[in-house]
């Protein structure tokens, strides 16, 4: 039964690839409002709610087949099945090359695997498609730090924190010498 379900999923994904992925939903107006709210938030607890709403929007795939691919990849990552997650994310990115979250999640998977050089091209693509994606921006900064490229990470990190001042990664911003906090 499990094999049959897998075969049906592959067939569905292949037919979806043949049909082409629709344009990802335009959440610009909703994200504008959420960025404004998170910047006005009086504390981290309230800001976290706005950040969660942003993630809900980013994780909304363009159609049912792409949502299925994304959801399967996320489930596989949660249980450590990186091979399956990679397969689903590769299929998603091939099917929906203009969906930023496909690249962002594949970058996250490669980050978890410690394959930092593979992370950066996907994050650059995610950021090109969604320039204010704070998850992709912080992911890029954390990857650069992990690669020992701290000086390159700082401007990216500052950009992410300028969008969402409550990001936990804000603690990684280096203050110029002589600046008191």
TrEMBL record:
It comes from the Bacteria. InterPro entries: TPR-like_helical_dom_sf, TPR_rpt. This is Tetratricopeptide repeat protein. Pfam families: TPR_19. The lineage of its organism: Bacteria, Pseudomonadati, Pseudomonadota, Alphaproteobacteria, Rhodobacterales. Keywords: Signal. Residues 1-18 form the signal peptide. It comes from Marivita cryptomonadis.
